[in-house]
């Protein structure tokens, strides 16, 4: 939209220009006028001129002063001077202000028309170019987190000079100093087992987008990106990139706070690298931050960790513990088994072995022995192949040493301690059934989500339910869904696809097959039979 502002202290000139010239035919959308420079500035508070057509000599504020102020307010405004005097000083000022042209009074309409036919296309072209630049800038800002994701990988995987990347991508994409200290901050996200890959992708996208628009974030210069689903990597610098400084600690606290709203989906911990005054060291700093964040295995989650300065030991298990564990297990000595596991956990914690995979493997071996022996007793056979959960999968889901120890102990207790009283069993099964009933219409219901709610391992949740009810969990869920489907089928207006999604399933063909398996008829046959029976009543 092109706005014209006419400023002239002569009312006749002003009204003639405003009313008699066919501005709309010349591409002008709006025309406003003012009797002097001060009045024009007042008008400009709510009317943004694209073109200023102003007399030079006026009371209160002349055209030159007005043009200077309009240029400050609207740098892209085109200026045309009017005057009845051929004054060289005025012409010089017009040149300094980059005026489009200079018209002498009385104004020649054809000359005015020719001038506007020249400047309106230029103005439209400039407006379109500016709009395109704005769109490009908005698009760049909107997607800058995606670019920084790639830059992070380039920084930490290759020994690339930071200055080379800044020259390639620009300072808007990489707001880091090339001089001063740098460090890497690694945030590990420990996802809940029930979180899907699509949910992870959405959350990661939201985190990166939020971080990209936190600029400056506690006066920190940084960029962020993910390495696989679990590690949020931040490359940062400031005048004193010291992991132990108050400013750096405040950054970590704010980062944990930023991640807290989704804490029902994951737990998190932050690990700082050592610092370096060489930006080419980013790959080594990245490895340093990964080692630091491993401290969560021993100290717990939702904490900030700094590079370890005390000596660590390599923990080597006494291999006779495995045979001792197996012997105690066969003697059904639960208390002694639990004591063994607790002592082992204490010894491992003291050693603080950084090879956490080796430690995980120790607990996995104990779990495997436990399951091998108890399978021979037919204790954990759920009777449903769809409910068999790999032991390693459940153990891998444990984030800390204490969680691994508790997981092993819980399984020992479930198998070897005295069975629950009848009242406790009824209450526990009631809790499980209540959770299933309230979530059976959701396609997110799974053995994982039930296990998380009841604080049982998936393997023994299935065994416990089967032993107590005589049915598997999957059978129970399916029966509930079939009963709900029967109610929905009584409504002729409800489509089969809507019924399928309303009971927590996604595939209509699978639903039809399942329904026939449990009822002996297809959904359509069931609906027709119900409607027929209703008519005959």
From TrEMBL:
Q: Which residue numbers delimit the Response regulatory domain? A: 3-120
Could you tell me the keywords of this UniProt record?
Cytoplasm, DNA-binding, Phosphoprotein, Transcription, Transcription regulation, Two-component regulatory system
Transmembrane ranges?
Answer: none
Cellular-component GO terms for this entry: cytoplasm
Name of this chain's protein = Response regulator
Q: Which CDD domains match?
A: REC_YesN-like
Q: Which organism is it from?
A: Paenibacillus psychroresistens
Residue ranges occupied by any HTH araC/xylS-type domain in the UniProt entry: 430-529
């Amino acid at each position: 939209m092109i706005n014209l502002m006419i400023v002239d202290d002569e009312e006749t000139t002003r009204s003639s220009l405003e009313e008699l010239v066919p501005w709309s035919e010349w591409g002008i959308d709006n025309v406003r006028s003012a009797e002097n420079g001060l009045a024009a500035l007042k008008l400009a508070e709510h009317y943004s001129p694209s073109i200023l057509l102003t007399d030079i000599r006026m009371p209160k504020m002349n055209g030159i002063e007005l043009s200077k102020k309009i240029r400050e307010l609207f740098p892209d405004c085109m200026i045309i001077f009017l005057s009845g005097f051929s004054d060289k000083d005025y012409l010089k000022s017009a040149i300094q202000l980059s005026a489009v042209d200079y018209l002498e009074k009385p104004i020649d309409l054809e000359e005015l028309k020719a001038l506007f036919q020249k400047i309106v296309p230029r103005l439209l072209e400039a407006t379109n170019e500016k709009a395109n630049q704005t769109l490009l800038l908005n698009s760049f800002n909107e997607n800058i987190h995606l670019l920084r994701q790639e830059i992070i990988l380039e920084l930490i995987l290759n020994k690339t000079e930071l200055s080379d990347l800044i020259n390639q991508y620009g300072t808007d994409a990489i707001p880091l100093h090339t001089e001063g200290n740098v460090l890497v901050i690694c945030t590990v996200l420990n996802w809940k087992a029930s979180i899907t890959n699509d949910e992870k992708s959405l959350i990661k996208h939201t985190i990166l987008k939020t971080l990209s628009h936190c600029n400056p974030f506690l006066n920190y210069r940084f960029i962020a990106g993910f390495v696989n689903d679990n590690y949020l990597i931040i490359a940062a610098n400031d005048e004193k990139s010291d992991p132990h400084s108050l400013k750096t600690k405040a950054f970590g606290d704010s980062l944990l706070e930023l991640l807290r709203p989704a804490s029902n989906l994951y737990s998190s911990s932050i690990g700082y690298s050592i610092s370096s005054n060489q930006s080419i060291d980013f790959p080594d700093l990245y490895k340093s931050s990964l080692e630091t964040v491993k401290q969560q295995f021993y100290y717990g989650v939702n904490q900030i960790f700094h590079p370890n300065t005390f000596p660590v030991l390599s923990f080597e298990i006494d291999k006779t513990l495995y045979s001792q564990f197996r012997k105690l297990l066969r003697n059904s000595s639960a208390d002694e088994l639990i004591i063994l596991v607790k002592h082992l956990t204490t010894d491992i914690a003291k050693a603080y072995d950084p090879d956490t995979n080796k430690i995980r493997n120790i607990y996995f071996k104990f779990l495997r022995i436990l399951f091998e022996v108890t399978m021979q007793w037919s204790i954990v056979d759920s009777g449903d192949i769809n409910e068999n959960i790999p032991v390693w999968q459940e153990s891998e889901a444990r984030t800390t040493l204490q969680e691994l120890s508790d997981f092993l102990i819980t399984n020992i207790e479930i198998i070897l301690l005295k069975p629950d009283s009848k009242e406790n069993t009824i209450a526990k099964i009631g809790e499980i059934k209540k959770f299933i009933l309230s979530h059976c219409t959701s396609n997110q219901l799974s053995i994982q989500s039930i296990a998380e709610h009841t604080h049982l391992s998936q393997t023994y949740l299935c065994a416990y339910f089967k032993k107590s009810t005589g049915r598997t969990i999957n059978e129970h869920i399916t029966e509930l869904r079939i009963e709900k489907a029967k109610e929905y089928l009584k409504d002729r207006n409800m489509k089969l696809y809507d019924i399928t999604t309303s009971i927590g399933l996604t595939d209509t063909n699978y639903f039809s097959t399942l329904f026939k398996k449990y009822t002996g008829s297809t959904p359509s046959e069931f609906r027709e039979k119900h409607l027929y029976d209703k008519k005959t009543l």
